[in-house]
Design goal:
The protein has 236 residues and is mainly α. The chain has 10 helices and no strands. Helices cover 81% and strands 0% of the residues. The longest helix has 36 residues, at 88-123. It is flat and about 60 Å long.
């Protein structure tokens, strides 16, 4: 191992540790201290705001939900609220659009501050990570969609922002990957809202919907696994 490789192998753990430390600090200062905002995102309050907005109710909900995603506030409960307020179909569409916009804002902000140093200190120094970065640039839509299906948390936006993935591929891939999670939240949110007792949650309809979602999600995970395996095989 020459001096350049030795320096690179030494700098990587330091850089990763610094990124983790900064991320933890931001999480503590921004997310934990703003966790009381969750109290604002409840059904009655959002319903009231949407009603007061009149024809702009859908845009108001999208703006609120996008802000929640940007602040890493759990989005799926909001998707469930969207399904109750707007109905299953429009609630699903508005929620997917909102979470994609919020994730994209997080992506653009992170890319502005993190991409340069990550490319310089990580991707350009380590061949395997450079190959991954190239894959994301060439097959970004498929990879982002696959990652979003198995890793919906918003922190994924920060990591992908450091790569060379195209913004268009990131936005569309995120929307595709979020869609199954939003669909599940909207469907079950409506079922819980309409149920008069716990017994109403265990009907043939809910069992059928749950089974279809479980099978569908399992199929998506399998397809993602096959796609990743094919990528790994192509690298050999």
């Amino acid at each position: 191992m020459n001096n350049t490789q030795r320096k690179s192998s030494t700098r990587l753990p330091i850089f990763v540790a610094a990124v983790l430390a900064i991320s933890f600090l931001l999480w503590h200062l921004v997310v934990i201290d703003l966790s009381h905002l969750l109290e604002w995102f409840d059904l009655e309050r959002i319903q009231s705001v949407v009603d007061r907005s009149g024809p702009l109710g859908a845009l108001t909900f999208i703006a609120i939900a996008s802000l929640a995603e940007l602040l890493t506030i759990p989005f799926l409960p909001l998707a469930a609220v969207g399904g109750i307020v707007f109905g299953k179909a429009f609630g699903f569409l508005y929620s997917v659009l909102a979470v994609s916009i919020g994730a994209s804002l997080s992506f653009l902000i992170s890319r502005h501050f993190l991409q340069g140093i990550a490319q310089r200190e990580i991707f350009e120094r380590f061949p395997r990570l450079h190959k991954l970065d190239t894959r994301l640039e060439e097959q970004g839509l498929e990879l982002v969609a696959s990652l979003r299906i198995i890793m919906p948390p918003p922190q994924l936006s920060w990591a992908l922002a450091t790569t060379r993935v195209r913004f268009r591929d990131y936005f569309i891939g995120s929307a595709i990957g979020y869609a199954p999670w939003v669909a599940a939240a909207v469907l079950f949110g409506n079922l819980i809202f309409e149920a008069e007792s716990w017994k109403d949650l265990f009907t043939q309809q809910t069992v059928l919907i749950g089974s279809l979602l479980f099978v569908g999600f399992g199929g998506l995970v399998y397809l993602v696994h096959q796609f990743v395996q094919r990528l790994h095989h192509d690298e050999r």
